Amino acid sequence: MLQHPLLTHPFLYQVFTQTRRWKDHADMLKQYATCLQGLLGAYNISEPEIYFDVWVSINDRFQQRLYDPTVDIVKADWSPFHKTPWVKPLLVDLSPWRAKFQEIEDSLDNQTDVVFIADFPGLHLENFVSEDLGNTSIQVLQGEVSVEIVKDAKNFTLQSGDHMQLPAGEYHKVYTVSPGPSCYMYLYVNTTAMTLEQNLTRLQELKEKVENGSETSPLPPELQPLITGHVEDLNVSDPLVLAYLRRQRRIEEAERRRNATVVERFQRFFNKKYYLLRRSFLMTTISLRNLIIGKPPLEQLAAEVAFANIKYEDPRQQEVKQQDQSIKEPEHTDL
């Protein structure tokens, strides 16, 4: 979150960096906030306040905050010689819940997903329920929370065992009002994904009928790629067929890797490690050069970083990538 006397809004970290490693390390987070403070001066934003609300799940525990979201990281203290006060503690007392998580997940049907949340007293989670999630509810597992439906300006107090339905397409806030941490879970059904999966299943059944001869009617032109299997032959006006073919291609790619020989697996492993070490060496060289003799023009620096970030791709991956780039996606089409 970026705060300034004239604006307050969520900040997109991808604007200035292509990696997310910094969010998991307090020292890197402090460095990133300091760098942002300097860079934002070019956009007429002076003395910004920068807050981070980072959520993680460590070793299959609850999703919990990693840092105190009320602390301005620009002004926050950090030293390698003492404990960082704005790093939130790991809620190890809730670790026994991990066995219960598996029981809850096993009791759900294939169409229902669950997210487990734990939060600290005095803090709140602001969340938005997408319209795709037409059946979303919150259930308290431990502690006490107050759920605010922002649009209606209504609050509902929930204790352990209580649950309520959440409106889709709206924001809500979950305040932890109990003396200790609260634990709750979101249960939701992605109706759009479920409908898409049903449509993809129908396409798979249609393809099997054509292949075994039980479907005698000729396929319309937009469904011909089901038989050829080539994405580049696709009529892009039908995004459903595009989604089906791309899913089939991912399945084929996973099957190809499973059936790879020992030599092919070793070659892939070696190449990935080589590109990883190559990136580390080049990025270190660029950083040292910048510290010793200064930064080059931004265009040159961007080109150097892009060259260092090149990832390994086997010939099949390169072919698939070229095919994807040659296809123009439909902008707004209902599946």
UniProtKB/TrEMBL annotation:
GO molecular function: gamma-glutamyl carboxylase activity; vitamin binding
Pfam families: VKGC_lumenal_dom
Gene3D superfamilies hit by this protein: Jelly Rolls
Boundaries of every Vitamin K-dependent gamma-carboxylase lumenal domain copy: 16-91
Location of the region described as Disordered in the Swiss-Prot/TrEMBL record: 315-335
Protein's UniProt name: Vitamin K-dependent gamma-carboxylase lumenal domain-containing protein
Organism the protein comes from: Engystomops pustulosus (Tungara frog)
